[in-house]
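thread: overnight batch results

M.L. [08:02]
morning all. the overnight job finished for the chain we discussed friday. pasting input first so we're all looking at the same thing
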Amino acid sequence: MAAYRFVVSGRVQGVGYRYFALKEAQALGLAGYARNLDDGRVEVVAEGADSALASLEGRLKEGPSFARVEAVEKAATADRGDQGFHIR
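M.L. [08:03]
and the structure it wrote out:
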């Protein structure tokens, strides 16, 4: 099991991005959370199987239809032991 912190920039707040991340992460069986950051970016912390995390990263780069993703920063992080995926 691996864990990553993704920070997504662009037009990602006010366009349903966190709910998009929630739906995608749940479909992939990942645990973690998505939250808005004060600087206009969205943080997604997810843990689970490497293949599922790779799929999530690809989907985060696409985003929902009203979003405009400019960049996705990825950094390994420690497993948090979360149960399920949540919006904060």
